[in-house]
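Sequence in, structure out. Go.
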Amino acid sequence: MSDLNSLSQNFTLKSLLKFSFPTILMMIFMGLYTVVDTIFVARFVDTNALSALNIVCPVINLIVGLGTMLATGGSAIVARKMGAGEHKRAAQDFTLIISAGILLGVLIAVSGTAFY
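Output:
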């Protein structure tokens, strides 16, 4: 049965790149998106818009980082519980993670609206 699970085998550079390639590709495209967005704002809008974009960009990265943290960590926790046969506990953890994400989203939206 462990032969069917590709995560239980020894890792080589090739297998590590196989698992990490989608994440690497996503990070490259997100970086390119930021660069292209900056170029368009610099060329077709004014310097104030470019300054605003550079001020807001770290905030957006923080929000994306928090969402990725909840999604990655939450899916690992839920998958581990489901693998152990604890389906009720996995459902409870999933509900907690979704609730925390919604609460975090509402807090970010309210603070963004309040400090606008």
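Check: The mean pLDDT is 86. The chain has three helices and no strands.
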